[in-house]
Structure formats: C-alpha cells, structure tokens
Amino acid sequence: MATIAARPDVLPPAKPDLTFARKPTSKIAIFFWRWRMWFEATFVLSMLEPWEKILLITLFAVMYLFVMSAIVKYFPRHLTVMQQRAMYYLWGQEGDVRLVWQWLGFGDSTTSGAGGLLKEL
C-alpha cells in the first residue's frame, strides 16, 4: 500500500524569488525603490548577474568621473577660446576683453562707476 506523504506546514519560497521587486511600505523606501527599479529597467540591469551589475556600474562611475573632471579642468579654458573666436567673428580681429565691455556700455571710463569694471579686467 502506498503511503501519503505529510504536507509541510511551511512551503518554500516560490522560484524565482521576487521579493526584491516588491513595493516597500515607507515613503522614503518607496522613493528609493522606484529610483532603483527605474535605473535597473533603463540599463537592463535586471537581466544581469550580480558580478555583471557591479562591473557595469563601476564602468559607468569611471566614465562619469572622467567626464566631470574634463568639464572641471578643460571647460573654463574652452569658454575662453570660444569667447575669443566670437570676438574675432564679430569684429574681424582678435580683440581685447575690454571691447566687449565697451560695446555693452560698461567699459567707458568717463562715466561714473564704470571705471571699476575695467580695473577688474
């Protein structure tokens, strides 16, 4: 005669275990959970294994740091070069910064208070 196995009181979790995707209850946890779900869905991180996620996020972080350092280091110089080119295109010669201030009406030293602007330049 076949014996019937006793049914366990507690069933094991369903596979795949999707507890990480459940919406949390607190407001701040919901905010970060939504941001995490958006980030994982945008960059398809939900399909990757944990080591692949770490590798990809590290790669993104390094690229972000390179771009930010380039902006901080080289963007001010690039703005200066672009300003000089704009002056060349506007006036046909490489001019001084004071030409821009005079064209805007701030560079005339005969008016009161405008001489300080030229001294700062």
Automatic annotation (TrEMBL):
Q: Name one Pfam family in it.
A: SPT_ssu-like
Arranged from A to Z, the UniProt key words for this protein are: Endoplasmic reticulum, Membrane, Transmembrane, Transmembrane helix
User: Can you tell me where the transmembrane regions are?
Assistant: 54-75
What InterPro entries does its record include? Ser_palmitoyltrfase_ssu-like
| One term under GO cellular component | endoplasmic reticulum membrane
The domain of life for this entry's organism is: Eukaryota
Instruction: State the membrane topology.
Output: Multi-pass membrane protein
Main localization of the protein described in the UniProt heading: endoplasmic reticulum
Q: Look up keyword Endoplasmic reticulum and say if it applies.
A: yes
Could you tell me where this protein is found in the cell?
Answer: Endoplasmic reticulum membrane
Q: Return the protein name.
A: Uncharacterized protein
Q: What is the lineage of its organism?
A: Eukaryota, Fungi, Dikarya, Basidiomycota, Agaricomycotina
